[in-house]
Amino acid sequence: MRLSLLVLCTAPLAATALSWAPARAQSIPSPYSYIERRQEAGPFTGYMSAASGRFGFGPSGGNVYGGRWGLELAGPVSLEGVASLVDGTRDVVNPGRVEGDRIVGEGDVLIGTVDARLKFSFTGQRAWHGVSPFIVAGGGIAMDLSDSAEADATLEPADVYEFGTSFFGTAGLGTRWFVTERFALRADGIFSLWRLDTPPGFSDPARGFESVPESEWARGLSLTLSLLYRW
């Protein structure tokens, strides 16, 4: 009688334990994790290659370094601000000389850029195995912060090129890797556009130049790596 009562009392407990065992064995952890923190900021560095224009007097790119800040908005969209410096060189070109012999020197350039961008994440507000690829596009301004090159003194005033201030457009893609909840690594490949104003001396018909526009758009490609702190 006591044995039957013991079996009757323990049977429900045994059945419950057996029902939990297969359920736990069949659970599969998700490869996706939610991105909880909404803001991030950090430095970046890399290299930029840029077209120097028809006559080759524009900046040709150089080392890039700067900082970025980002804010996660609704869904897969986020907003970010980027400030950078492009430290490179340009050729000093004399349009009064024959083609092939117009480069008379080299000058340093330090292009500062400030722009705002919209970023669209392919994985939304989640990361796949800690990785979140994205596309990005935006616009801002670019300006030359360097002094004139010494070789510019050998040119006529109408032949001297100045970068001045230009619209700066960007579009590209990249990915973030969330190392921890607080820190992430980010890689970007960015196509950019800025305007090169043509000095008047390069459109002088007496020098044989024809159909020379007052300005032209030059494209660039930069590859950068960022370290981000998130909060």
| The top level CATH class name | Mainly Beta
Task: Give a short account of the largest sheet.
Answer: 8 strands, antiparallel, barrel
The total beta strand count reads: 10
Radius of gyration: 29 Å
- Low-confidence segments, ≥5 residues, pLDDT <50? 1-23
The portion of residues forming beta strands comes to over 45%
Q: Please identify the structural class as seen in this structure.
A: mainly beta
Shape: elongated
Structural notes for this entry:
With 231 residues, the chain is mainly beta. It has one domain (31-230): Porin (Beta Barrel), CATH 2.40.160. It contains one helix and ten strands, in the order H-E-E-E-E-E-E-E-E-E-E. The protein is elongated. Residues 1-23 have low confidence and may be disordered.
